[in-house]
Inverse folding.
């Protein structure tokens, strides 16, 4: 009950502190409690950040170890989810005991049971290969007889991608069931499904390459690879997305675009609808949403001037929210599409002063190149990023894919901002020229 109230009130810290005080004073020793009560207590304690050294957590783990037979299959996922967070030896032992029980009963699980168990064990980070194999067979059986609802498919697809589980048959079964449920899929289920399937594709090199092919000639070969036509699957999901477009939030828009970028499928009809919807909810975009949306549209060479202008202005107003990677991706995407707007350039360049020490060499190079495209001349900003590149100069010059960007950076800024880095650039350039001369001779 405390956990539910805390979630309903948006994670109120005072309520969390009060809940921890109550839990610290709670004990189940000598109490007549059932397994479900113990599991919920353990789950609540872990939710509020309590570790194995807390009395209530320790007592609940001891109960689970002593009374394994009392933990039913519907309680099992609650216990495993809590133990996955704890990472202690006792928690690991509880997980292993419950894994044996789940494997032994896999063929008797219903749709809800198998979904919850797969989700729980996917969070443990432990490779229970035999268990997952048995659960995947049960999933295929239940998919064939139409037992799963869309909400189940979302949880399972997400869990299997988290596990990096490579069973083409279970993915095919989930995909076929998703297509059969097309009319019943809500927007809250559609977007996670698109994201999950995009990640599934990314984990298979052959599939990933075919998705990335602009010619889309891979389609007829998909049946042999995965037992499901992925063009049909994404066609069904895309059509449903267009039908539900007015229900898309800023987060759903950015997540969907990011998923299609991940697998390299360009869908102009869907993207036009998403861009139009994004204009209606511009103010709801946070820094992460802006970064994903702009990066995906730039990836596909799409430039909606009105959307870019309004997102850029909004990005400038919330510049302090941007994390290093999001800031770099956003600036780089705007620069790649030659969309130059002063307010966002100034705001994000000033934000870069505070996150420069967290940038790696690749991010620093991409950010500097964006500054060059934006004609940023703020000495404080440039000095901070150039110094970061100097500190990482070996990695900065080592990546061959960034050589053109580096050349453009020094064409714009020359040696004046950071003479040491420019000198290193010239020495690397001269060394490459000498090697080319030796090769030709």
């Amino acid at each position: 009950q405390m956990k539910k109230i805390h979630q309903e009130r948006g994670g109120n810290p005072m309520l969390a502190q009060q809940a921890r005080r109550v839990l610290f004073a709670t004990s189940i020793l000598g109490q007549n409690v059932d397994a479900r009560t113990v599991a919920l207590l353990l789950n609540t304690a872990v939710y509020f950040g309590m570790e194995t050294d807390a009395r209530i957590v320790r007592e609940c783990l001891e109960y689970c170890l002593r009374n394994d037979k009392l933990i039913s299959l519907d309680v099992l996922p609650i216990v495993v989810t809590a133990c996955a967070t704890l990472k202690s030896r006792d928690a690991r032992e509880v997980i292993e005991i419950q894994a044996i029980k789940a494997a032994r009963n896999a063929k008797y699980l219903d749709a809800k049971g198998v979904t919850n168990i797969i989700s729980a064990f996917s969070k443990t980070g432990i490779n229970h290969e035999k268990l997952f194999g048995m659960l995947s067979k049960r999933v295929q059986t239940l998919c064939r007889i139409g037992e799963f609802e869309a909400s189940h498919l979302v949880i399972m697809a997400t869990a299997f991608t988290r596990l990096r589980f490579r069973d083409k048959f279970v993915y095919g079964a989930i995909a076929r069931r998703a297509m059969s449920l097309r009319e019943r899929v809500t927007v809250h289920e559609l977007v996670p499904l698109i994201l999950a399937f995009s990640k599934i594709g990314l984990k298979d090199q052959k599939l990933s390459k075919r998705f990335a092919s602009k010619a889309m000639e891979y389609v007829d070969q998909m049946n042999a690879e995965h037992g499901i036509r992925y063009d049909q699957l994404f066609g069904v999901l895309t059509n449903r997305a267009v039908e539900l477009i007015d229900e898309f939030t800023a987060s759903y828009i950015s997540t969907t675009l990011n998923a299609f970028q991940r697998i390299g499928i360009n869908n102009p009809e869907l993207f036009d609808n998403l861009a139009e919807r994004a204009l209606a909810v511009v103010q709801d975009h946070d820094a992460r949403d802006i970064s994903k949306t702009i990066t995906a549209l730039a990836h596909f060479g799409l430039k909606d001037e009105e959307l870019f202008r309004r997102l850029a202005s909004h990005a400038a107003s919330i510049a302090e929210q941007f994390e290093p990677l999001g800031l770099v991706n956003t600036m780089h995407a705007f620069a790649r599409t030659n969309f130059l707007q002063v307010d966002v350039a100034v705001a994000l360049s000033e934000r870069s002063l505070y996150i420069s020490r967290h940038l790696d060499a690749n991010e620093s190079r991409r950010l500097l190149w964006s500054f060059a495209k934006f004609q940023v001349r703020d000495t404080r900003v440039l000095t901070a990023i150039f110094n970061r590149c100097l500190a990482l100069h070996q990695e900065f010059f080592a990546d061959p894919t960034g050589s053109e960007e580096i050349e453009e950076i020094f064409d714009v800024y020359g040696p004046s901002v950071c003479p040491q880095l420019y000198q290193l650039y010239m020495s690397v350039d001269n060394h490459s020229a000498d090697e080319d001369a030796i090769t030709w001779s």
